[in-house]
Amino acid sequence: MKLWAKGFSVAALAILTGGMPVWAQQPGMGTPIPKAPATAPVPAAAPAAPAMATPATTKVNINTADAVALTTVKGIGKSKAKAIIAYREQNGAFKSVDDLTKVKGIKEKALAKFKDQLTVE
């Protein structure tokens, strides 16, 4: 009689627990239930130095800089960098940073925004 009662209770519990008998969930009995994977804590990202940025203390020399170096200056994009190089190749070295206003597309107001990042040394 005990076997029948135990068999009946397992079958009843299997139905109530969604098809998984309770005894299979107990440690050491039946198939172990896999635990949910623990999420590893995400390490704080170290601040990465921008690959193209120049340090705040380093100025870009407009007489020797290539297009990549010129575009590191905030306010000078690819087209302005190309225009600066083209002007320099056609007219020679700049005597001062203010000479950039002679380059097509660079006005005094725009130059004032990035003038402190440039040099002609």
Give the topology, please:
Layout: H1 2-16, E1 60-61, H2 67-71, H3 78-91, H4 108-114, E2 118-119
Parallel strand pairs: 1-2
Tell me what the structure shows.
The protein is mostly helical. It folds into 2 domains: 1-30, no CATH class; 60-119, Orthogonal Bundle (DNA polymerase, domain 1). Helices cover 34% and strands 3% of the residues. The chain has 4 helices and 2 strands. It has helices at 2-16, 67-71, 78-91, 108-114; strands at residues 60-61, 118-119. A two-stranded parallel ribbon has the order 1-2. The protein starts with a helix and ends with a strand. The mean pLDDT is 77.
Pick out its properties.
single chain; 121 residues; mainly alpha; DNA polymerase, domain 1; 2 domains; 2 strands
- Tell the overall outline: rod-shaped
Give the strand tally: 2
Mean pLDDT: 77
Assign the structural class, choosing from mainly alpha, mainly beta, alpha/beta, alpha+beta, or little secondary structure: mainly alpha
Lateral strand order in the biggest sheet: 1-2
- The number of domains is 2
Kindly state the percentage of residues in helix: 25-40%
Major β-sheet annotation:
2 strands, parallel
Task: Provide a count of the helices.
Answer: 4
CATH class of the largest domain: Mainly Alpha
From the alpha carbons, calculate the radius of gyration and give it in angstroms.
Answer: 36 Å
Task: Summarize the helix and strand pattern as letters.
Answer: HEHHHE
Distance between the termini: 102 Å
CATH superfamily grouping of the largest domain: AF1531-like domain
Contiguous uncertain segments of 5+ residues: none
- Annotated CATH topology of the largest domain: DNA polymerase, domain 1
Instruction: Give the CATH architecture of the largest domain.
Output: Orthogonal Bundle
Strand content: under 5%
